[in-house]
Amino acid sequence: MSVTTPSHAQAARQTPTDKLFEPIELGPYHLPHRIVMAPLTRSRARQPGNIPWPLNACYYMQRASAALIIAEATQVSQQGQGYAWTPGIHSREQVEGWRLVTDAVHNAGGLIFLQLWHVGRISHPSLQPDGMLPVAPSPIKPAGDAFIENEMGEGEMVPFVTPRALQVEEMPYLVQQYVRGAKNALTAGFDGIEVHAANGYLLDQFIQSSTNRREDRYGGPIENRARLLLEVAEAVSQIWGSDRAGVRLSSLDTQNDISDDDPEATFGYIADKLSDYELAYLHVVNPALKAMEQQNKPSPLALRMIDMFREKYRGNLMFAGGFDQDTAEAWLKQGKADLIAFGRKFLANPDLPERFRRRARLNADDQSTYYGGGANGYTDYLSLAQEQGKEPKPCVDDRWR
Ligand SMILES: Cc1cc2nc3c(=O)[nH]c(=O)nc-3n(C[C@H](O)[C@H](O)[C@H](O)COP(=O)(O)O)c2cc1C
């Protein structure tokens, strides 16, 4: 099945020369261009219950001209939650809430995958079922603070705790949390799912050596450290078909206090293994993100990692992190990537592809409104059309009244 939506078809007609605007096949989907919206946690789910609601539907609908929206990291279980007010995909109400979002995006001609998330140790007992300890491969406390809701209902940073190491007997049940999330995402009307194995969360904690000191079949050599990710990728592929599933990895990023003794070997193994699954795509956080942001030369290791992913992964490769239109175009032209995901630029520019197409000025993102709050800094970034005086598209659905 190849799906071309009206706004996608229109977009494809407009800028034929740039590589960013060349169409690409992604699993069963025909994307009219290569500008993806990266997953962005915004901590604006309805409370109580971490339920997506019309405000979220409006935000995603505004961004439906992305070739693909990868919706924000979404916990597959309460155990998988690590921050206040992030949405889940484990309750009936959450599935119904996500249905508002997927319908809104589809009505606007967009395509939307859900990022399935378990944070592992990047949590706090106050977010866990019955105030229990967060779980992790090994009982190693991360440096830093968790973002929780305090007794007054406000966001607060509190120090991380030492997590409880998962028992080997629990591992199949952990995979089942992702399975339930994947099934629920199907019911909620998503077009696919992305397994979040990046940024120091649970699957990454198993992969990278600094957070995994296990001596069983989930620890030690990379074949063991990659086991949980591969089991999850296999299980969710059975639900969705592997061509509607993606995986996100980050390799040199130290976010959430994580690192690996030999990232080239670790991620080379995983990229190679994941090729066999024939996924919709592999999504990699740019190893040269920091350097590119600071307009510095990337380290030799970062450059080797970028090439390594291309060599080892035989399928659609997406990079995210630190790109502007020109660097994205250059990476596509040089064959380093097939798709580029934009985070902060999409956050602040709901019509990013149109702005790129016209080489228009971009809105700047406001960091103070990244997490929590309401429409301010969320659905009130203007499109070019609005800047020119046009009324915004109404964000209304009969079920919302
Ligand atoms: C506010 C904010 C929230 C984010 N939330 C997520 C998330 O939920 N899942 C994820 O994998 N990455 C998340 N990221 C990382 C982005 O997907 C992206 O990799 C990062 O912003 C770098 O890309 P950029 O330079 O285009 O912004 C987040 C980044 C920001 C700024």
Description:
With 401 residues, the protein is α/β, with parallel strands linked by helices. The chain contains 14 helices and 14 strands. The longest helix has 17 residues, at 171-187. Mean pLDDT is 94; it is low at 1-6 and 9-16. It binds flavin mononucleotide (FMN). Flavin mononucleotide binds at residues 38-41, 72-73, 115, 196, 198-199, 248, 285, 320-323, 342-345, 370. Flavin mononucleotide is lined by residues 38-41, 72-73, 115, 196, 198-199, 248, 285, 320-323, 342-345, 370.
Blueprint (SSEs and pairs):
Blueprint: H1 6-14, E1 24-26, E2 29-31, E3 35-37, H2 54-62, E4 68-75, H3 92-107, E5 112-117, E6 135-136, E7 145-149, E8 155-159, E9 164-165, H4 171-187, E10 192-197, H5 202-207, H6 222-225, H7 227-240, E11 245-250, H8 263-275, E12 281-285, H9 289-293, H10 300-312, E13 317-320, H11 325-333, E14 339-342, H12 344-348, H13 352-358, H14 384-387
Helix pairs in contact: 2-3, 4-7, 8-10
The chain binds flavin mononucleotide (FMN).
Flavin mononucleotide binds at residues 38-41, 72-73, 115, 196, 198-199, 248, 285, 320-323, 342-345, 370.
